[in-house]
């Protein structure tokens, strides 16, 4: 059972307050409330979820998020508060928009993933995303998920492939607090053709039904296309997933990398930002409607910004550390150096959270420099050459200012 709470109530604030960081907790919750929040409370566990981006609370992961963000702004310490691990590069789909090449190289071993999670834990990471390729293709997926310690929370990014009752029962007992399922369209035929996989729609719906039966926090990701916006199909999409009972819709826009390296997204971005923002506000106070979470709005300078390389990193399936799953630059391999060393070396290029999507910024520079992108992530010297031209402005995004103000 869940209860939906609109806005910042005393109950929510009490549960979001982290001991020793009372003012920071207050500032951040008020900041988010000003953007408009709808909170899901899971009644069985008394956990509160703002969205799939921030850890649920009260929890040790939330404490680490609030405490870590405070240290980042007040002590100039670098912490990868959030990290994604690409546990496999392999995938059974061929999505039109995928920023990853279908990667046949050897994936990190279980032991290497274990070492990676331990290192992230020691660096203060609060949330770890398990992603791919398709993470469900790994036969040791349960063992990998079981590596997530109690003071970190896990997210699982998946198409829903291979989900069954037994797996979802396992998830319920694990430290995965949110599952994010890709569902590109409410029409089965289109959904499957966009993924080039005949069972894409079935897999997603089956997984959502299983997850919702157990009341596990479930978000869907939809990558907006011109067609979805043009035909107002996005509204139909929202209504479709509402009826499935999902908690959140993550609206993302195509990042011009991988299969869509040269995709011109400018007019789509402008249209989508306006359209999605209107829908979000329209349904914000309706508890029966899923939370609409617009990535472009949330990761803009006026909110959390782009944390790539600054407070967020991704480790790809071969061990390369990249600033974000969608950024094809690499800065070292965890098989050769510690994550701490690689992450600290990245400081020069990623001193702070950026004001807009680094994936978009660097794709322009990659194209300007005529770089061969047949193998990504690019090697370290090439990545440094690109990153040197894209150094993120040292001004923090607004949410971090809320932490900074409280720390003065
Ligand atoms: C890389 S996939 C990995 C997990 C799983 N294979 C899946 O598709 O859900 C994670 C998410 O990234 C999205 N994605 C992939 N390429 C993208 C791009 N170029 N722009 C925006 N989102 C993209 C996918 O639609 C998916 O929701
Ligand atoms: S978006 Fe996900 S499912 Fe689609 S090809 Fe990429 S990794 Fe595979
Ligand atoms: S590079 Fe783009 S997708 Fe990655 S964290 Fe930044 S805003 Fe998000």
Fold topology:
Elements: E1 2-6, H1 10-16, H2 22-35, E2 38-42, E3 47-49, H3 60-74, E4 82-88, H4 110-123, E5 127-132, H5 141-145, E6 153-158, H6 165-173, E7 176-182, H7 188-195, H8 200-213, E8 217-223, H9 226-230, H10 233-244, E9 248-252, H11 266-283, E10 291-294, H12 295-298, E11 312-315, E12 321-322, H13 339-345, H14 358-368, H15 380-389, H16 398-407
Parallel strand pairs: 4-5, 4-11, 5-6, 6-7, 7-8, 8-9, 9-10
Antiparallel strand pairs: 1-2, 2-3, 11-12
Helix pairs in contact: 2-16, 3-16
This protein binds S-adenosylmethionine and iron/sulfur cluster (2 copies).
One iron/sulfur cluster binds next to loops.
Terminal CA distance reads 41 Å
> Beta-strand level of the residues, as a percent range?
5-15%
Are any ligands bound, and if so which?
S-adenosylmethionine, iron/sulfur cluster
Total count of strands: 12
- In the predicted model, the low-confidence regions spanning at least 5 consecutive residues are none
Q: Provide mean pLDDT, rounded.
A: 92
Oligomer category:
single chain
**Structural class, from helix and strand content?**
alpha/beta
Strand ordering within the main sheet: 10-9-8-7-6-5-4-11-12
Shape: globular
> Biggest β-sheet: count, sense, barrel?
9 strands, mixed
Order of helices and strands: EHHEEHEHEHEHEHHEHHEHEHEEHHHH
Global Rg: 20 Å
How many helices? 16
Helix content: 25-40%
